[in-house]
What we know:
Number of strands: 0
Low-confidence stretches: none
Membrane topology: Multi-pass membrane protein
Number of helices: 3
Radius of gyration: 18 Å
Number of domains: 2
Order of helices and strands: HHH
Strand content: under 5%
InterPro entries: Sugar_P_trans_dom, TPT_transporter
Distance between the termini: 60 Å
Function: Involved in the import of GDP-mannose from the cytoplasm into the Golgi lumen.
Transmembrane segments: 6-29, 36-57, 63-82
Structural class: mainly alpha
Family: Belongs to the TPT transporter family. SLC35D subfamily.
Largest sheet: none
Amino acid sequence: EEWGTFMAPAFLLFPGCIAFCMTASEFALLKRTSVVTLSIAGIFKEVVTISAAALVFEDRLTPINFVGLLSTMVAICAYNWFTIQ
Length: 85
């Protein structure tokens, strides 16, 4: 009973704190870079999520999914290459 009175508020506050930190980090990133860079970072996050799901949970990627993932990675690398040059 005593443990539940501590954990219930923690379960409610922790996701809110995480969301606040994510929003604050996006704002800080936008102050230093462009909106396009933030968009590319979001796309990269999706690529990491899909790749982790394929590796950890053994989700099957169809050939079209794999080609899409590969073309997205190539496009992100090209964007970074041209941005640095």
